[in-house]
Amino acid sequence: MTEIFWGFILRFLQALTSAGPTILVGLIVAGVLEKLCGYEQTRRVFGGKGVKSLIIAWAWGMLLPVCSVGVIPILRVMRRSGLSGGTILAFALSAPIFNPISLLYGLTLSRPFVIVAFAACSLVVVTSVGLLWDWWFPDQQQLREPEATPAPGLKRMAAVGMTALRELTGPSLVFILIGLGCSALLAAILPHGSLQRSMNADNPWAPVTMLGVSIPIYATPMLAMSQLGSMFQHGNSTGASLVLLVFGTGLSVGTLAWITTNYGWARSAVWLALMSSSVLLLAYIVDKPLYPSDVEAADHTHAFDIYTSPFTGALVDPVDEMRMRLINSIQPYEWRVVYLLAGLLAVGLVLRRFNRAGAIDRWLQQQPETSGKSLDVAIPAPVLGGIAIVALIGFSIAGCYIYYPPPSVVFEELEQVRVGAIYAARHGEVRQAEHHIALWDEWSRKLEVGVYLRTFAVRDFQAMKGRILREKLELLRHEIEDGDRAAVDAMLREVQQSQSRWQQAFTPTTAAQRS
């Protein structure tokens, strides 16, 4: 029981820190939609109803950087705006699957056609199921009277913040905690490494098994993309990878709880059954055609260890073990987001306590008295809402260039990771070595995306050197696990040779000579 308790705490904190940034985005978008766009404009943004609204909801979901729990505040505003259930559920599932950063990362994992095909599959699923849902269950709109428009200027911005704080301290928080908690509980109960062989390509039940695992788990778009890369690299089931992307990334128990609360058990069960059967059908259709023919299938993968117990045996010092694992798995900047959320939660609770009668909301809606000429330009709130959403998408795209830096920055950051991996491998520190090898693999993929963003091309020679390096890193991981010192030293030499050749391929002078 000790391992289950501490495993739950560790997995919950890991999920919370990963979800923090996208939860913040979801709160901001919810505030913008409700206080700047308003209910009527929100309906226009999502195209009203019908096939058009489903496609628009999918497209907006592809652009906004939210996750399967960060999307919940937005769903609540969409529901209050009177959008159809099919449109809301289409956005609920598509928004967490892709965003500009994860989509670019995904293009480095396999043939670009595979990721494009997965995106097309998600569009087919959410639109077809959404149409059936709206046809079977019409008149689901929850139309509300439009709220008074906040006063222009700082009051309008404060109203957006008030909505975000209200969502953070209200039902959204409950559903977010349900989603993260259920994922952590599943991970604490499943034995460590129990999923390593369950997704092999020769297992016909791999997509079904993935369906059972992926619904309760929580995965950010970037985590799911990295796991897809590991599945492609190990020759795992392509159909299972599609299921992981759609359900593991797009859905959480928290989202299901919100859907059930708003639409009832029967309708929610119908929607989940339609989604599951559609995704499984597509998974088996694309499993063989999209399978990477140039990859030798491995007998296991570590991609899903994050969804199982983090501990392999009895804990001698649980507190110290937790501290070390949190240091290795959570970056310092991720903690800052958690602290920010905690601060906002405290402020929101105080405002809830002193704003029960709605005095603050009435003050924010009071229009200023104007006298004489003014240089201020009164911009309609819907226009500001549209500008805010476009700006958020712009920041998301700009974030791609920050998240994927130029080669010079990657090589500088990678040097520290490389030294850490080599030191840990030579001294038999398995956990530290695995941590640094995973970072090494991630930086190699970031480099390819960064080069593509700046030059709009990654040559086949460069991509090949990257694949060879990552294959050598995976072999190094296996040798470290086996504990054969001579084999580890030999593989370290091969990895460093591959690293040198890979780096030369992306050095401007060498790249120009190869062209």
TrEMBL record:
It is found in: Cell membrane. The keyword Metal-binding does not apply. The chain crosses the membrane at residues 12-33, 53-75, 87-107, 113-136, 172-193, 205-225, 237-259, 265-286, 333-351, 383-404. It comes from the Bacteria. InterPro entries: DUF318, UPF0718. It is a multi-pass membrane protein. The keyword Zinc does not apply. GO terms for cellular component: plasma membrane. Keywords: Cell membrane, Membrane, Transmembrane, Transmembrane helix. Belongs to the UPF0718 family. PANTHER family: UPF0718 PROTEIN YCGR. This is Putative permease.
